[in-house]
Amino acid sequence: LLYDDELMREDSDIVGNVFIETDRNTNDIARIGGDGTGRTYGRFRFVNNTFVNLKTTPNSNAIKVNFGIESVEMYNNVFYSPYAPMRIFYPSDDGDNGVGSPEGAWSCTWASGERSVQGSNNWVSEGSLMVPEEWTNTIIGTDPGFVDAENFNFRLRADSPLRGAGTKNTVATWEDWGENWIDERKDNGKIIHLVCQDTQFPNPLLLPEYMAVDKADFIAKREIVPIRRDNTVMDIGAYSYRAEGQPVIMPLTLTVETSGTGVTVYSYSVTETEGIDEAYRYHGDYYVVIQVYYKNEPALTYAQKFNTENNADNCMFKLGNNTRAKLMVVNKFDETDNDVIVLAEAVEIQ
Question: Quick one: which of 325, 330, 345, 343 has its CA closest to 267?
């Protein structure tokens, strides 16, 4: 999308965050499209976020659109407003910022000339206003199943309706819309020409692998954030359900032991993360899986079983010329099992 030679479209990808609106003199949790400094005419994508509105008065907006925008897509988000109704998605179109008419400078202008909104599998509080009609599989309820919302613990209880209610299909497909001329003389003295080149969101972020940092994590200054436990389907929101005793992460340390002509010998060790609560630790059997590639093609996969009572320590393997490898730590060595948990970040040898 281009409009004028000196301007570029600005996109935003918002994934895995917690947004909390307290009882302040503000109305918008998120404002997109522009904020008095210009028009992005961008594409906006919200995935697995938790929006919490704690205001006791109405007229709050979860997502408000001002100025110029191309498209908005929203998946697996929570919109929780326990004390007063909240507008979920509010494109400003009534001059409510003092300009006095729908033609005011703050009004939402769609790049294509038509509203472009998609999304699915979002949870909203009962009584919410302006829930996008374009959404599918919307869940409406009164209790999202947070552990302790009053104390800002938005992790999921075992009975939370957000568990397994999300989707892994989080990128929209849009139709091309050609071109559009927009009269912005009211703002900057010119008419802009917008041309659609490719409507898809560019390089969307992957689904979140880690939970958002919560208040307890922040106070305790934990350096390790719990991994998500989503399996075949996603949980909705910035957290996935995690029962006590389920794992966070175990770092895998890989070092080059010796090297020779044509062959390199490596050793690996697995050590448990220090400085985290016992409830976050993983206990039991695990596997170190090594995937070997020859000339960038998968050649061999093998795994060795260990236990947290007897961790892997200085275990050897070799790689020849034109080979590389990827190592990871998992709780099960079964690619078809949906309960396989990655316990350590993968390490690659090029």
Answer: 325
Q: What angle do CA 181, 88, 130 make, to 5 degrees?
A: 75
Collapsed DSSP state (helix, strand, coil) of residue 222: coil
Question: SS3 string of 187-216?
Answer: HHCCEEEEECCCCCCCCCCCCCCECCCCHH
**What pLDDT, in 10s, does the model give residues 31-86?**
998 876 677 888 999 999 999 999 988 888 999 998 888 999 999 999 999 999 99
Give the separation between CA 115 and CA 134, rounded to whole angstroms. Answer: 10
DSSP per-residue string spanning 124-186: EETT-B---TT-BS-EEES---EEEGGGTEEEEPTT-TTTT---S----------EEEEE-HH
Sheet holding 18-21, edge to edge: 18-21, 50-53, 78-80, 123-125, 139-141
| Residue of 129, 28, 135, 30 whose CA lies nearest to 84 | 129
Type and span of the H or E element at 79: strand 78-80
Alpha carbon distances (Å) from 279 to 153, 212, 247, 276, 326: 16, 18, 8, 8, 29
Q: Which residue shows structure tokens 């007229």?
A: 59
Q: Are the C-beta atoms of residues 48 and 166 closer than 8 Å to each other? A: yes
